[in-house]
Write a structure and sequence with these properties.
By secondary structure, the chain is an all-alpha fold. It is 67% helix and 0% strand. The chain is elongated, with a radius of gyration of 21 Å.
């Protein structure tokens, strides 16, 4: 028996459903982050002491920066999931880009946008 070189259409459909679910949640999360970042509501500290306002602005700037970083990571995640859907359409999904072998289903169920097996990922780090 020859080793499988790609996942069947049925298996690809299962992965498509997993990815679409994760994509829906990821987009909602990203949109919420972007709404929060674009919301310039300053909680009305204008009438409080200048010292408190300065501390509040520093804290706000830091939390906005953290939110921007989270939004950036979320955008990359969404892009990764979208790219995985393209690979499903091209029937190249689940193939390790270093070895050309199939990435185990267990890994793809957890990290559906993976392009490397755990072994390849670890080998790249060394």
């Amino acid at each position: 028996m020859t080793e499988k070189t790609r996942y069947s259409d049925e298996e690809l459909q299962e992965f498509r459903e997993i990815i679409n679910e994760k994509l829906s949640v990821a987009r909602q999360s990203l949109n919420a982050m972007l709404r929060q970042l674009s919301n310039n509501d300053d909680n009305g500290v204008d009438d409080t002491s200048p010292t408190y306002k300065a501390l509040e602005e520093g804290s706000t700037a830091q939390s906005r920066e953290e939110m921007a970083q989270m939004a950036s990571r979320q955008q990359k995640f969404v892009a990764g999931l979208e790219a995985a859907l393209v690979r499903i359409e091209n029937k190249t999904y689940g193939i390790d880009r270093m070895t050309g072998e199939l990435i185990p289903k267990e890994r793809l169920r957890v990290v559906p946008h993976a392009t490397l097996s755990v072994a390849s990922k670890n080998a790249r780090k060394k």
